[in-house]
Amino acid sequence: MESTIVVAILSLVGTLGGSIIAGIVSNNKTLYRIEQLERKVEKHNSVVERVAIAENTLKSQQHQIDELKGDM
Length: 72
Prior knowledge:
Layout: H1 2-71
């Protein structure tokens, strides 16, 4: 009877340990993927900001060209 209880306890400890380790590893992978996605979003946002600035600059320059044409 005692050996059955010892085996059951060892099985319980092994199962709990494996589950905890698997959860930690899975959580770490998820956090890593989220960090990578955040980096991609930051790059995308900086590109969008630069495009908006370039468009504003282009509009301003076009306006200046139109004014110069009007003065001629």
